[in-house]
Amino acid sequence: MRSRASGISIGGRSPGPAGYLISRIVQGLLIAAISGGLFWLVWVYANGLRDPRYLDGWVLAGGMAMQVSFQIAKAVGLSPKSALRWRKMHIFVGYLVIAAFISHSDFTLPDSGFEWALWMGFVLVVLSGIFGTYLAWSQRAKGRIDDGVSYDCIPALRAELELAFLRAIAETDPSAAAIDLPGLPHDAWITDLYATHLGDFFQGHRNVTAHLIGSQRPLKRLTDAIDNLSHYVDQHRQAKLAYIKTLVIEKDRLDFARVSLGLARGWLFVHVPVTYALIVLTVLHIFVVYAFSSGVW
Amino acid sequence: MAPRRNQLAVLLALVTAIFMGLALFLSKGTQLLMPGPLTSGHGAIESCNACHTKSGSNKLSWLHGLAAADPLADSKACLTCHKMPATAFNPHGASAEVLGQSTKRLTKIAAGSIAPRSAIAQSVAFPMKDVIAGGLYCATCHQEHQGIRFNLNKISNEQCRSCHVVKFDSFDGHHPDFQNYPFERRTRIIYDHASHFGKHYPDLAKKDPAKSIPSTCAACHNSNADRRVMATAPFDQTCSSCHLGQILGKERVSGPKGIAFLTLPGLDVETLKKKNAAIGEWPDASDTALTPFMKMMINRNEQGRGLVKAVDGLNLHDLANASDDQIKAVTNLVWEIKGLFHALIKEKASDVLGNLNVDGRAKLSAALIADLAAGIPRDAVIGAQQEWLPNLATEMAGGPVTPPKELPGPDAPQAIPEPIQPDAVSEAAAETGTAEAGAETEDVEAKLAAATETLCAEKAAPPEDAAAESATAEAEPDGGEEMPSTDEESLAEIKGRVPLPTGTPRAIKAQIEDAEAGTAEAKPEGGRETLCAEESPRAETEAQAKNAAGESDTAQAETEGGIEAPSADQQPPGNTTEQFDDLLFPTGSEKAGQPEEAEAASQADGNTPPDAPPASNTTPVDPQIQAAPVTGIESDVDPETWAEYGGWYRQDYTIYYRPTGHKDKFIQSWLVLTGPQAPKGGTSPAAAVFDYLTSKDAQGSCKKCHSVDDIRGKARVVNFSPASVQSKQGRFTNFIHEPHMGIMDNRGCLTCHSLEKSSPYLKSYEQGNPGKFSASFGAVKKELCQTCHTSGEARQDCLLCHKYHVNGAATPIMNTKIPAQ
């Protein structure tokens, strides 16, 4: 299995680490500039004795509409290239919508029930969106998931690994039978290793929490045990243990992939439904605002 | 996965909608929809439609607001508690005129100023025309629902700047220079600081070192009462020691010290007589002019207005060249004046003054009338009438009375009028029309005979004249007889304390009664009865007397009875000049020791005061002996001096009022009343009164210190008070002295207010426009304020020195109905 190097962009040619950094910086500056421009515009609007909440409110609503249109476009069907572009735009506009929201809420927390509902809905959507963006980045950045590995095929891959491991455990040294003198029980030790540490590891998805927090300790524990044993076995067994070690690492990567890809699916179960609820609240909010506006906006 | 997710999303949306609907219907009112708490001041408002007039009170009625809203209606809801003038929705709450003037002035300044970029961007991107076009609503600046502690009055400098033609960055930046701040108009109270500091105080210090002279500004100025105004201490504390005498007239060297209020103007009586003007009696000796106050009083009705107009410009002292119409007008004026005096006596002064009909008002308030009348005693008017127009009642009842040939002036030696014999008087008056008084001297008889002769000649005149003349008294009032009046009320009221002439209706009535009783007997000797050759006694005279007395009054008079003349042997004690008041004059019974007669007399006339002089058989008093008021006490003090500290007094043919001191209500009330009708150069009686009281040498010297402002050429107003909080309403700036007091250096007030010694301050008051002036002090410069009000030091935001609602906003007390029992 190939390991991916970090810093490879999704789709297209990789710009390299430096290019990636530059693009990120430019993107950040652009977001900051546009956000600053929005704040300035709202300030000028307020100076004109107008209620600025109407301006940044409609900017916010427009941004939210753009975000929702991504979902609609996906439902219609997009080519992978278009989907990538949409996704990029979705993330970029998302940051601007955050700026619009901060402006609209006047940098303060809400102070009524209905406003709290709106606020929490928006924050949930935003946080889940940021999480999803981070997840996607980390998957690409750490390169621990191979291309072609999808969430659905992970169980099959795990079963293959388990089978390979069991074969490796069961394999004995044929030259041992020709020696009259009793030999050292190296295979027994390996079998024992299997029984005590590795058997359970290969039977299912393990170390979910460690993978959630990005910890490598469980894997290290296992590989240390293998490394320790390999000092005491002969060369042949050392080769075997080395092979078992690679299987353990692969299995660990699969577990990571499962957790990561599972999260990648799960966060959308927050992001999308809460977005729908937020749309309902937003429409109600617009009605209420204009009903009580007295024509002043 | 995606379909499941989408299903979940739709489900969550539905749940949200249902939950919100339930929450809305289950919650109290529409509180759920409120975007935030109201500020503390509005915390008691529970219903949304208290301010959002379209929202209704139902759960869903707020949806009506989605239709075309009326922001003005919602703003008017604010005015329910925050009372503001009608211009509330104009910028600054100022009138369009003021705004126009300000804009015009500031546009010139804006042409030379550099606007900040943000201001330019705002005016380009979001112009203000749309915002102001429909009026500035309350919610434009005051955004609610931002929490309990939110400051609704918080407005940024940029927001203030958005509307103004002059746009600048900050106060310590490019704020326009002050335009003659803080002076917007000349001071209301005329006080030349420079001359007082430079001349008057030093002179006074030399002249009278013991006199208290202000040594500090705080001696006259302080802002303790109201921080918003640097008030001036009242007159009593500051100016009275030097100026009170001027007000009282003590320092007046020429002219009367009192204000001529009521007078009998001097007329060209001779010419009027020649032209047969029936003016009745009128003193020859008067040389006064008609007072403006009387013109106003005469002007109170249509007829009077016509008269005032007709005689305006006429020289009443010389009517030789007057046309017949003018003579007629003068005649009518005479009767109008007599009517005025009559009304002032018969009615109440308040009734006359309450109907002055100035500026179309029918009736003045009680307080104003009280001040206008200044407690003028009725006796003063009665005394004047009895001295100047003794036959006024008769004349008002029956027409003019031919005056005697010579009438004594007010300074003429006063003879003792004899008590009147009503029978003789009535018969004589009835027969001859001549008033007769008891006379004991040959001179008197001679004079009486002469008067009778004249009267007989006049009796040859047309019957109506004769009847009128026969009924009126020609003689001067004698000692002890009351002035009969035409009706019961007059009889009851006009029981003066001065002797009344014979021949008056009352006397005539008494004579008639006596004649009916068969007791009256004409006695030609002694002048008790004068009969013309062609006249028959008694019956005819009775009839004529009755006519003269007036038919309607005869019954009353008869019922009332006449006043019995004192008996023949009863002589008035002492000198007539000393015994003029009937209270002082002993009764007949006292004099003659005849209680029965006195009793009978009192029974005959139930209205006769118990101490009225009894009837006598004395001869009629010669007109020349008709006496001026007799005090019986010698005095060197003239009436004007007597009223040294103010009040009413009578002198010559005028009733004067002398100011009582500063804030004299009489002068103030007349100025307040007439000012609105007294444009400069006006010729109306109101303008005449105003001019009279504000002339350079006017009594009271009001105009010496109180400026007079011309109101658009239509009126004038006297500024009685200095600047106050009320007078500062409408100003765009506010300044509080107190926080600055601790930081002034040794120069104190002069740090900011530099005295301009050469300023032509007093010249400002030679014309009526308060906006044209030269101030005593130099204007405050912006740079002076900028020494502290700059970034990093003292505040320099717009609202520190400028207020938006220039006319203020008040919260009136609520109209709580008194709970029913």
Class inferred from helices and paired strands of chain B: mainly alpha
Rg of chain A (C-alpha, Å): 28 Å
Total strands of chain B: the figure is 7
Strand content of chain A: under 5%
Low-confidence stretches of chain B: 411-441, 459-501, 520-587, 589-626
Q: What count of helical segments of chain B does DSSP give?
A: 34
Helical proportion of chain A, percent range? over 70%
As a percent range, the share of helical residues of chain B equals 25-40%
Radius of gyration of chain B: 40 Å
Largest interface, with counts of residues having CB < 8 Å to the other chain, equals: A-B, 41 and 58 residues
Strand order of the largest sheet of chain B: 3-5-4
Distance between the termini of chain B: 77 Å
The oligomeric status of these chains comes to heterodimer
| Strand-pairing-aware structural class of chain A | mainly alpha
What is the terminal-to-terminal distance of chain A?
Answer: 62 Å
**For the residues shown, what is the average pLDDT of chain A?**
83
- Report the biggest beta sheet of chain A as strand number plus sense, adding barrel if it closes: none
- Could you give the count of β-strands of chain A? 0
The number of distinct helices of chain A, counting runs of at least 4 residues, comes to 10
Q: Give the amount of beta strand of chain B, in percent.
A: under 5%
